[in-house]
Design a protein that fits this description.
By secondary structure, the chain is α/β, with parallel strands linked by helices. The protein has 19 helices and 16 strands. The strands form five sheets. It has a five-stranded parallel sheet, sandwiched between helices. The chain has a five-stranded parallel sheet with strand order 9-10-13-8-14.
Length: 438
C-alpha cells in the first residue's frame, strides 16, 4: 500500500496550524508540525517530506531559511511560503530563493487545497544531473540554460524570458511548462504584438453573447483557455498601457471578467512572459508599468544569441537538416565554416530559414557554402557590420534589418509589423518593395 504524502507545516500560530492540519487531513495527507526554524531544520533532516508550508516570519528567523534548508537536501523538498497580506516583497524574495509558491494571510482554504494538489503533482522529469535535454547545444551557455529551466519548472513563480528574436524563448517557455506540475494542462502561447488594441480585452478575457456587434455566443479568452496550465505572453512589451492595467489586476486577483459580464471568474494560470526588448528600459521611459514589471519579472531567464555560442551551430545545423530533409543531407566543411562565421541576427529561426533555402538549391543532397548564400556584410566581425559609406546603402541595411526583425517578431503579420515599426501599412508595403524584401 502506497504511503500518503507527508507535509511539514511550519508556523508559530497554533490556530493557523490547526486550520491547515485539519484541511490537509481531510485531503488524506499526513502532517507534522514545527514552530520554529530550528525545529523545521531538525524535522527536514530526519524525515522525508513531499511538501513544506512555512510562514515567512518565525520566532527564531525567517521562512527563507527553511526554503534554503529544504532546497539543499539530497532530495529537495518543495516549499510554499505564507506571507502577510499585501507584502509582495516577501513573496518575490521567497520565489527567487526557490520557493514553489506562496499564500497570503488570511489563508483561503480553497487556495490552500489548490496549491497542495498542484505541488504534489510535480513530476521528477529532469535528467539525473538536473538538466533538460531538448535544447540543442553543448556550450556552457546552453548547459546553464538547461539547468535553470529544470529548476524553474519546479516553481509556480512568474518567469520573464529575455533574448533576441529567434533565440528560442518560446521553446524555453514550453519546456518549463512540460517539466512542471501543469504539464497535463494547456500551454497557450499569445503574441501580444499581433493583436489589435481594440480586440485585446475580448481576446484575453473572453466575452458574453451580445456584448458587442458580432458577439453571437459566449466565448472564452486566453486566460480561460489556459486555466490550470500556462499562459505564455510573447512580446509582452507590445501591450498598450491600457491593457497593462487590466493584466495587472488579473495577476493580483486571479480572476477575469468577460466583456459584457457582471461577475468575475477565478482562473489558475502560470504566467511566463518574453520579449526581445528591455522591460527595465521601457519602465524607465514610461512605456511599461513598473508594478506589472515586478509582477512578471519575479525570475528572469536570458536566452543567449546564436552568435554568442558559435560552437553550437554545427550540431544545431545537423539537427535542423535532419528535421527538414532527413539524415542523408550532408553539409560540407566549407559550408559549416561559413555558418560558424555568420552573425545570425535572426538567431536559430534565421539558421533554419537559411538551411531550408539551401536545401532547395543544393544538388545531390549536398549543401555547399555557395548554396547557403550568406551575405558577407552580416558575417561576424569585431567591427560594425557593413561600411557606413555610401550613406544610402548603410541606411538601407539598417532599415532592412529593422523590418525583418519586426516581421519575425509578428510572425510575418504585416499589419502588426507596421504597428511595431511605428509606420502605416502603406508605408511598410512601399519599403518592402523598395528594399526587395519578399
Amino acid at each position: 500500500m502506497t504511503a500518503s504524502p507527508r507535509i511539514l507545516l511550519v508556523d508559530d500560530e497554533p490556530d493557523l496550524l490547526d486550520l491547515m492540519e485539519l484541511t490537509l487531513v481531510k485531503m488524506g495527507l499526513e502532517t507534522d508540525r514545527a514552530v520554529s526554524v530550528a525545529e523545521a531544520r531538525e524535522r527536514l533532516a530526519r524525515t522525508p517530506y513531499d511538501l513544506c508550508l512555512t510562514d515567512m516570519r518565525l520566532t527564531d528567523g525567517e521562512g527563507l531559511e527553511v526554503v534554503a534548508c529544504a532546497s539543499a537536501l539530497p532530495r529537495p523538498v518543495p516549499v510554499a511560503v505564507i506571507t502577510a497580506y499585501g507584502n509582495a516583497g516577501n513573496a518575490v524574495a521567497a520565489l527567487k530563493a526557490g520557493a514553489f509558491d506562496y499564500l497570503a494571510k488570511p489563508v483561503a482554504l480553497d487556495q490552500l487545497r489548490a496549491l497542495i494538489k498542484s505541488a504534489l503533482r510535480i513530476p521528477d522529469t529532469a535528467q539525473p544531473d538536473g538538466t533538460v535535454r531538448e535544447l540543442i547545444g553543448q556550450s556552457a551557455a546552453m548547459q546553464d540554460i538547461r539547468s535553470r529551466i529544470a529548476k524553474l519548472a519546479r516553481t509556480q513563480a512568474p518567469v520573464h524570458i529575455a533574448g533576441e528574436s529567434g533565440s528560442g524563448k518560446e521553446l524555453a517557455a514550453r519546456l518549463i511548462h512540460q517539466l512542471g506540475s501543469r504539464t497535463d494542462k494547456p500551454f497557450v502561447a499569445v503574441n501580444c504584438g499581433a493583436i489589435l488594441e481594440t480586440l485585446m480585452e475580448s481576446e484575453f478575457f473572453g466575452y458574453r453573447k451580445g456584448a458587442f456587434t458580432g458577439a453571437d455566443a459566449d466565448r472564452n479568452g486566453f486566460f480561460q483557455a489556459a486555466d490550470g496550465g500556462t499562459l505564455f505572453l510573447d512580446e509582452v512589451a507590445d501591450l498598450p498601457l491600457s491593457m497593462q492595467v487590466k493584466l495587472l489586476r488579473v495577476l493580483q486577483e486571479k480572476k477575469v471578467r468577460k466583456v459584457g459580464a457582471t461577475q468575475e471568474e477565478p482562473v489558475d494560470v502560470r504566467i511566463i512572459s518574453a520579449t526581445h526588448q528591455s522591460l527595465a528600459a521601457l519602465v524607465e521611459a514610461g512605456k511599461f508599468r513598473q508594478d506589472l514589471y515586478y509582477r512578471l519579472n519575479v525570475i528572469d531567464l536570458v536566452m543567449p544569441s546564436l552568435r554568442d555560442r558559435p560552437e553550437d551551430i554545427p550540431e544545431m545545423a545537423r539537427f535542423l537538416l535532419g528535421r527538414l530533409g532527413g539524415s542523408q543531407i550532408k553539409l560540407d566543411r566549407d559550408a559549416e565554416k561559413s555558418l560558424c562565421a555568420y552573425a545570425f541576427p535572426g538567431n536559430v529561426r534565421e539558421l533554419e530559414n537559411t538551411l531550408e533555402r539551401a536545401l532547395a538549391m543544393c544538388e545531390d543532397q549536398h549543401i555547399t557554402a555557395d548554396d547557403l548564400n550568406l551575405t558577407p556584410a552580416l558575417a561576424a566581425s569585431s567591427e560594425q557590420p557593413g561600411s557606413k559609406f555610401p550613406l544610402q546603402d548603410y541606411l538601407d541595411q539598417i532599415e532592412r534589418s529593422a523590418i525583418l526583425e519586426a516581421l519575425e517578431q509578428t510572425r510575418h503579420n504585416k499589419t502588426a509589423a507596421a504597428r511595431v515599426l511605428g509606420v502605416t501599412f502603406r508605408s511598410l508595403r512601399y519599403r518592402l518593395e523598395r528594399l526587395e524584401i519578399k
